[in-house]
C-alpha cells in the first residue's frame, strides 16, 4: 500500500485495525500539501490513504468516502473531471452503504427497546420505539426487518387490548413475508397467528379462523404435528370454535392442545395451565360443572405458592373455582 508514494509511507503504518487514525493522517497530510500548492503530492497521499483502507474494518466505508471527497475536489481543481466524478460517485456509494448498515442497526436497537418496554408493560414507550423503528426501516427498504417491526406493532396492539389499531400492521407483515419467503414459510405462519388473534378480538371470527387454521397447517408441515407452535394455534382455534358455539370441536381442539403442551412443557407449565383454564371455562359453558371445577382446581393447585396471589391466571382460576362451587351447590339444592 506504500508503492504510490515511492517510499515507505509512515502514514500507512497508522492504518491498521482501526482505520480512522491512518485515514485522518493521510487527509491532514494531503490538505497541508495542497495548501503548500503541491496538488499532485496531495493527490498521491490521498490515493495512498484510499488504497491502505481494509474494507472490512470498522468505519472503513466512511473513512474511505472522506478521502475520496478530498481527492475528488483536488482532481476537480486539476481539471481531471472524469476521474473526479468517479471518485465522488464511489464516495457517495460508500456513504450510502455505511448509512444503510447504521440505519438497520438503529432500527433494530429501537425494536429491541420496544420489546423491552412491552415486556415491562410500558406500552406507550413501546409504541413510540416501534414507530421510530418503522420509519428508519422504511427509509432503507429492508423488507424483512420492516416485517419484524410490523409483527411487533400488531403484537403490542394485542397486549394492550387495542386489537383494532394493530390489524393494518399485521396484514402488511403477512403480505411482505409471503412475497419474500413464499406462503409456506413459518415466518408467514407466525404473522398469520398474530393477525388471527387481532381479528378474533375485534369479532372478525371467520377471518381469524382462516388465519389461525393456515398458521396451524404451516407449523405442522414444517415442525411436525406435536410442536408447541401447533399447540398454541390449536388453542386459538379452540377459542374460535367456542366463540361460534361449536363446543364439540372446541373440546377436541383443547384436548389436542393440552396433550401437546403437556408433552412439550410439562403439566404444570403456565403455558399448559392457560389452556387447561380455557378448557375449564368451556366445560362450564357446556354445563359440565364438576369436570370444569376439577380442571380449574388443578390450575389453582399448580400455581398456588409458586406465583404471587395477584398473578392473573391464578386469580382467574380461583374465581372460576368459586363460581363453579356455587353453581354446583345451587344445583344440589334445587
Ligand atoms: Zn500511505
TrEMBL record:
InterPro entries: TPR-like_helical_dom_sf, TPR_rpt. The keyword DNA damage does not apply. Pfam families: TPR_10 (PF13374), TPR_12 (PF13424). SMART domains: TPR. Keywords: Repeat, TPR repeat. This is Tetratricopeptide repeat protein. It comes from Acrocarpospora macrocephala.
